[in-house]
Amino acid sequence: xxxxxxxxxxxxxxxxxxxxxxxxxxxxxxxxxxxxxxxxxxxxxxxxxxxxxxxxxxxxxxxxxxxxxxxxxxxxxxxxxxxxxxxxxxxxxxxxxxxxxxxxxxxxxxxxxxxxxxxxxxxxxxxxx
Length: 129
Fold this sequence. Notes:
- With 129 residues, the chain is α+β, with helices and mostly antiparallel strands.
- The protein has one domain (3-123): Cytidine Deaminase, domain 2.
- 28% of the residues lie in helices and 24% in strands.
- The chain has four helices and five strands; from the N terminus they run αββαβαββα.
- A five-stranded mixed beta sheet has the order 2-1-3-4-5.
- The protein is globular and about 40 Å long.
- The relative contact order is 0.18.
């Protein structure tokens, strides 16, 4: 799957976002190294701390299916600008490796980053061994 197709899957997932408070819809599409794609959308609640981001939804779905090796994740939103993963999502992404491409898109124009670009000097499992 190419990155344009992955961005399209993220936009499709964004349609399912549940955002009655912010109206800020986010979609994500996670490409595993085995070639499977897991999608996610953000789901928010009145207790905002219980909210889950699109990126983590996609990753949690993949983990729950036994997939833990990822090639790329695409992130899109209802904003007119690029939307980058939040700090918590960046920490979750780095848990699964520093070689994952992070694709942020707006209107199908996209940029690609590595987690070290977005989360330099990250804290990982190596730090607690």
